[in-house]
């Protein structure tokens, strides 16, 4: 009774097939999906770079309209417009202290592929269970059973296609700047890797009125787009000593804040090397086996910090209204990084992302 993009074997293609949607539980809602962002995490899981099973339905940047609501889901009614984000337990120490991005059950709730009772929200027509409930949603499906903690209610006039990506990449890029690095007016910032996540971060730096916003990438077209979105300087990382160029631009012994969106060890090391005294660097993603080398002496003499940030330390319930307001004021040009594709154009969307033609692909249903 729904259509979904299914990966039947790791490394295999996404195929558009029929699926059966289970009845909702008391802590879930049934959502008609209207838009789904394509995130690198979906592709890494489908390729087998993370411990998942097949057949599977991924997708974790969904947006749509609520059709049914379980009795224990509060603040949500049928016909409400919602964005979908990551799932949390709401009861652990981190959830109760306002650090929901670090829920102690984050892996089990978002990457196990099943509900906590072991059941699957989606099955194939022959009854075989699908690895689903991905990030509490599996939004590569026309209908999604969504965990109550993943639901973010938004105004009825919200452009769901533009804001679908809030659920992961948007809140991660913006949140890393607003929350983790806490960029302040007049500060200097370097962003390494300006794909969609890095470009969201560039926009956030501009919103925070940073004095120097340095974009670092290897693709000239991405660097030009970064300039359009607020970068005050760009560095092609294939040309010269990146850390030295950053020091020259900042006019000190390095940059105050730095964000890596590439996950590449060598680039992370360069980012840390580019920090000035008491500077702070942040990573928001990498492959599971990524290791880096740090000059410990330089690290403590300069008093630098290197931290990780999951989901940009964001609470989507707070991030959504903040970014909706900025967009309504014309200060968040999401359309410049987003390309829309019909769901049956999924392969073309993937090809365009891989070729660099598209920055952020969003599927519309």
UniProtKB/TrEMBL annotation:
Domain Enoyl reductase (ER) as annotated: residue spans: 11-363
InterPro entries attached to this UniProt entry: ADH-like_C, ADH-like_N, ADH_Zn_CS, ER, GroES-like_sf, NAD(P)-bd_dom_sf
Pfam families: ADH_N (PF08240), ADH_zinc_N (PF00107)
Gene Ontology molecular function, alphabetical: oxidoreductase activity; zinc ion binding
Keyword terms, alphabetized: Metal-binding, Oxidoreductase, Zinc
Keyword Metal-binding attributed: yes
Cofactor: Zn(2+)
Keyword Oxidoreductase: yes
Protein family membership: Belongs to the zinc-containing alcohol dehydrogenase family.
PANTHER family, sorted: ENOYL REDUCTASE (ER) DOMAIN-CONTAINING PROTEIN, NAD-DEPENDENT ALCOHOL DEHYDROGENASE
Name listed for the protein in its UniProt record: Enoyl reductase (ER) domain-containing protein
Species lineage: Eukaryota, Fungi, Dikarya, Ascomycota, Pezizomycotina
